[in-house]
Every structure is written in C-alpha cells, then in structure tokens.
Amino acid sequence: MTEVKNFDEFFIHLEEVLNDRRKLCLFMSPGTKKRMSGSPNFEKLLKIASEISILSSDPSSIFNIRNSLTDIQISENSTLVAIGGGSVIDAVKILKYFNSVSNRKDTFSGLHLQLPENKKLVKDITLYCIPTTAGSGSEATHFATIWDRDQNKKYSLADAGLEPELVCFDNTYFKDISEEQLIIPALDALTQCLESLWNKNATLASIQYAKSGLTLSLDAFDQFMAHGKTEGCVDKYQLASYFSGAAINITKTSICHAMSYPISSQFLVPHGLAVFIFVSPVLQLLKENDIFLHRLSDTIQFEDLHEGIGKILKNFNFNEIINKFICPDNIRLLDNELFFHPGRSDTFLLDVDDFLIDRIKKLL
User: Fold this and answer.
1) In terms of pTM, does the model score above 0.85?
2) C-alpha pair distances (Å), 101 with each of 95, 96, 286
3) Which class for 141: exposed (0-12), middle (13-18), buried (19 or more C-beta within 10 A)?
4) Which residue of 134, 164, 166, 325 sits 20 to 30 Å from the alpha carbon of 244, by its own alpha carbon?
C-alpha cells in the first residue's frame, strides 16, 4: 500500500533521497506551476529538484503520452515526483513504467505503447505523488488512464509497476482552488468508496478502506456545507481520496463509472459529475440488498447515507449543473450498449443487463 506523509516528513525524506545521490525529478502541468508559484512549500521543492518537466495541459492523452515517452529522458536512480491531479499522476506513472519495468506489457486493452528504440530501460526508478485535487485516488492505485481524444475512447492500464511508492498530502496546494475544483473531484472519491462497497470483488481490506473514505468524505461535505473551505475540510477530502483509491485498487470501480463514460465523452460532463449522476439511483436499487447493507452496518445506516447524498445534491444544485450538459431524458435515450464496460459494470453486486440499466435510467 502506498505510504503517506505530510509535507514536512516528505521534505525530510527528499533530502535523504538527494543524499543518496539520486536525482529528484518534478513533473507538473503548466496550470499547477502557475497556480503554485510563490507557495513556500512549492518553492522549496523547486530549489532542491534536479530536473523539472512541464507536461502538457492534457498529459494523459495518447498523443501527449507518446510525445512524453519520446521527449523526456529518465535517468537511472531517479525519484519522480508527480505534482497534480489524476491525469498528471497517471502520465508520470506511465513514464516510470515504460522507462523502467522489466517484463512489462506493451499492450493494454488494445492500446499499444512502447519506449522509442533509441532509449534504453533504466534501473531503480521510484514514483512519489503530491495530489493537487482530492478525488481520483490515483495516488493509491496500480491503474492509469489514457484517453484517445479523437475517438472519445478511454483505455485503462493496470499493472503493479504503476503503483506509487509514496504520497504527500499538502493542503497548501488547495488554498486558491475554486469550489468547483475542490468539489467535483471529491464527488468522484465519494462514488468510488460506494462502488467499492457494492462490488463483487470486495475484500475485508477494501471494505475497511472504503468505509474509512466514505466517513471522511461525508464529514468533509458536511463541514464544507456548514463552513466553506477550511483546512480541516480539505484534509478530510484528501484522505477520503486516498482511501477511495486504496479501495478500488483492490475491487476496481463499478456501475457508476461504467455508465459515466458515454456521458463524459459525448457530452463533456466533468468526470466527478458524470459518475455522481448515478449514485442516488443505484442506492435506491440497493436499499434492500443484504450484502450492501451489512457492509455499511457498523459505519452508517442506509437512511442516513441516502439523506447525506440528498443533501449534497441539493446544496450544490447538482441537477441544475448537470442540466447544463445533459438532461435525464437525453440519458434515457442513449443506447444501453454504451453503458456496458467489462471490468466495471460486471463488478456490481447485481447482475447488469438491459433491465437493470433501464431501471437506473428510470430512477434518474
């Protein structure tokens, strides 16, 4: 499991890394560099870095991943630090994997990637993360996502070599982000915790991670709705994201993610909103499911969970925001085949067929 440190612990560790004659390589998007410029913690990292790479604003697209594999040189004995949201973390995961992992796969879900012939594999590469959003959970998973923007297609890569060794939580990165930048990823983390609980692949460990993340997430939303963005609220969102990642690292995601993909790709709905669309309908399907209710039992009662989700929907005017992209009637018109995704829809506790998809659509 990915180790967690706060910034002070992390910085001491990085100084030890440099004392071992390792290279410290920072990766970030242009937006992160601009937003964090002048932040004391960020400036401390810049001063001790051996190299700084500014990725594109869409770092996990196929086009930009291939450019990064060609253009960015990774040296032996390097520590890579991904500073950013899920797409930056995923991009650096892939850079590490294809530059350093022996016996690695070149093809994932039909997508072929490889290091250019003029580059050699290098030894002893470690990956650390500093998330600047609180939602994807990528900092705690062995997954990475690549998007084919031309085809509106998502590829999921999965391998133990993609999992980061260490994550640093630093709430100073959240000081100047908007409510939207904080809340939309947090909805993804909340959904991932629930999906891990209503999942056929659940284990004792994943259930514990998911319940920890669920409790933190609901507490953070309550705190945010009462007091706005506070450090304590941000800390809870960050840990909720981490635990959601640790949970889906075992179970994978489920029905909400499967149904979100055509919503995101065809209507450009932000990912956190697209997955959360389906949370309330799925909860209604599971209100009498003994397995799901048992997994919730010592954490939260179903009625309280349903009420908490309802408060979030109402407080953030969720339906009004979604209707700017797509209305429920348009979702109902989409072909059911678009919502079936092997490895996602088939992890759901209930068997996913046309009848179940129609029930979810009707409940929107």
Assistant:
1) yes
2) 10, 8, 42
3) buried
4) 325
Number of C-beta neighbours around residue 223 at 10 A: 17
Determine the Cα–Cα distance for residues 88 and 129; give it in Å rounded to an integer.
10
Per residue in 313-339, pLDDT (tens digit) is 999 999 999 999 999 999 999 999 999
Please report where in the chains the tokens 């590829």 appear, as a residue.
Answer: 155
Tokens found for residue 143: 């997954």
* Residue 343: partners with Cβ closer than 8 Å, 6 or more residues away: 156, 252
pLDDT at 107: 67
Residue 263 to residues 144, 152, 258, 327, Cα–Cα distance (Å): 20, 11, 10, 11
- Identify the pLDDT of residue 304: 95
Residues in the chain, overall count: 364
- Please provide residue 300's backbone torsions phi and psi, each rounded to the nearest 5 degrees: -155, 145
- Enumerate the H helices of 316-348 as residue ranges: 318-323, 328-333
Give the model confidence (pLDDT) of 221-234 as tens digits: 999 999 999 999 99
Give pLDDT, residue 120: 84
Instruction: Please provide the DSSP assignment of 191-227 as one string.
Output: HHHHHHHTBTT--HHHHHHHHHHHHHHHHHHHHHHHH
Instruction: Provide the pLDDT for residue 103.
Output: 64
Beta bridge partners of 218: none
H or E segment to which residue 326 belongs:
none
Rounded to whole angstroms, the Cα distance separating 275 from 190 reads 10
Q: How confident is the model over 264-314, as pLDDT tens digits?
A: 988 999 999 999 999 999 999 999 999 999 999 889 999 999 999 999 999
SS (H, E, C) 126-186: EEEEEECCCCCCHHHCCEEEEEECCCCEEEEEECHHHCCCEEEECHHHHCCCCHHHHHHHH
Eight-class DSSP state of 351: P
Residue where the block lists tokens 């499967």:
258
Q: Yes or no: say if 32 and 82 are a contact pair by the CB < 8 Å rule.
A: no
Q: Which structure tokens are listed for 211?
A: 């319940």
DSSP 31-76: HHHHHHTT-HHHHHHHHH-SEEEE--SSTTBHHHHHHHHHHPPPPS
